[in-house]
Design brief:
3-stranded antiparallel sheet, globular, 6-hairpin_glycosidase_sf, isomerase, N-acylglucosamine 2-epimerase
């Protein structure tokens, strides 16, 4: 492989796809120029199917628009989109108790709350990235305030409804891993010991509770002390989440002057999760596996969703940057080529979100409450930057 030629080509491709496909699609079809914020429930051609607004995506697109502005080009329309999402969040998406809603109407009336605090995390990173774009410290301070409130919700018994009743005590991987990235994004614009402490605590929890060498796996749910919960739900491996965790840790290792111990942890998670996730028959990263190789319970277990592919693209490229091991560049080639052969919609733009195991389209909509402009543009921005960094270091 001609590495310079390969990375130059992908760097240009990621940037071009972001600037000329993904961002224009959502600015045209998603941005609500009347009420503010963004719609995500759009059909294949961008037709609005449902005006319900995902609170996650007000934060997610608020972040992405500012992230693209900060790292790709100073497009004022992107910064305006970020501000529109942030203003909608602040005006409509917080309940009186400080906990955020999950879904609201197009004009911001609350529809649903959930026990999770992911809405808070996405709101916080949007505010932090907007602060980086504008230099307005008030947004960084607000991001930190929301983060601390999120910790309060998580650490105060009884404030958030547990996933299970008392008969089953458990820890979840998803909130543990997302707090690493959330704290790291806020740390870019404001300093506070609580951010580094949360990252340390999350990484320690991953090591102590979720990593199970006997299965060569990072589990999604474990008992209070990390014990295997030997049920269908307790044996779940989510390769996409694990691979995302791997590159979050790589980013932290880099922040800590290329901390080798952290890097080895990240590479171990990536290697194990790739082995569980890569579909050797059809290609792509599969949704769920059972650590004892029983049939997974989830109905979408053998499907290929958009976001695990994007996380694998970032993680393999990051691993190559950190190690110069061409094994990871070959993995990057596998996942990038498979993803770009199956997910992009060459007629209407953007990407499909849901494929069957063989790569055929399961349903053609470009967005819903859970899919919208986040994982795909984040991958394009991060991967473009990684390609450029690697090329400059050669």
């Amino acid at each position: 492989m001609n590495v310079t030629e390969y990375l130059t080509s992908w760097s240009a491709s990621y940037k071009d796809d972001l600037v000329n496909n993904i961002m224009p699609f959502w600015l045209k079809n998603g941005l609500d120029r009347k009420h503010g914020g963004v719609y995500t429930c759009v059909d294949r051609d961008g037709t609005l199917m449902d005006t319900t607004k995902s609170v996650w995506f007000q934060g997610r697109f608020g972040f992405i628009s500012a992230y693209a502005y900060n790292h790709i080009e100073k497009n004022p329309e992107w910064l305006e989109a970020s501000k529109s999402c942030i203003d909608f969040l602040e005006t409509h998406c917080f309940d009186k108790d400080g906990h955020m809603f999950f879904e609201v109407t197009e004009d911001g009336r609350p529809l649903r709350k959930r026990r999770y605090v992911f809405s808070e995390g996405f709101a916080a990173i949007a505010l932090a990235e907007y602060a980086a774009a504008t230099g307005e410290k008030i947004y960084a301070e607000r991001a930190l305030e929301i983060f601390k409130r999120t910790q309060y919700f998580l650490n105060t018994p009884g404030l958030l409804e547990p996933k299970y009743l008392p008969a089953l005590e458990a820890r979840g991987h998803s909130i543990t891993m997302i707090l690493i990235n959330t704290a790291a994004r806020i740390r870019e614009v404001i300093s506070d010991p609580v951010l580094d402490r949360q990252i340390d605590e999350s990484i320690a929890a991953l090591r102590k509770y979720f990593i199970h060498p006997e299965f060569k796996a990072l589990l999604e749910m474990v008992g209070p002390q990390g014990e295997l919960i030997d049920t269908c739900n307790g044996r779940v491996i989510n390769p996409g989440h694990c691979i995302e965790t791997a590159w979050f840790i790589m980013e932290e290792a880099r922040y800590r002057n290329d901390d080798n111990e952290l890097m080895q942890l990240a590479l171990q998670i990536l290697d194990w999760s790739w082995e569980w996730g890569w579909d050797k028959e059809f290609g792509g990263i599969i949704n769920f596996r059972d650590c004892r190789n029983f049939p997974p319970q989830d109905y979408s277990q053998d499907m290929k969703f958009w976001w695990p592919q994007t996380e694998a693209i970032i993680a393999t490229l990051y691993a190559y940057k950190m190690t110069c091991d061409e094994k990871y560049l070959e993995m990057h080639k596998q996942i990038s080529e498979w993803t770009y052969a199956h997910f992009p919609d060459k007629e209407y733009g953007e990407w499909y979100g849901y494929l069957h195991r063989d790569g055929s389209v399961a349903q053609p909509a470009k967005g819903n409450i859970f899919k919208g402009p986040f994982h795909i543009p984040r991958m394009m921005i991060r991967s473009h930057l990684l390609c450029e960094e690697i090329l400059k270091s050669r």
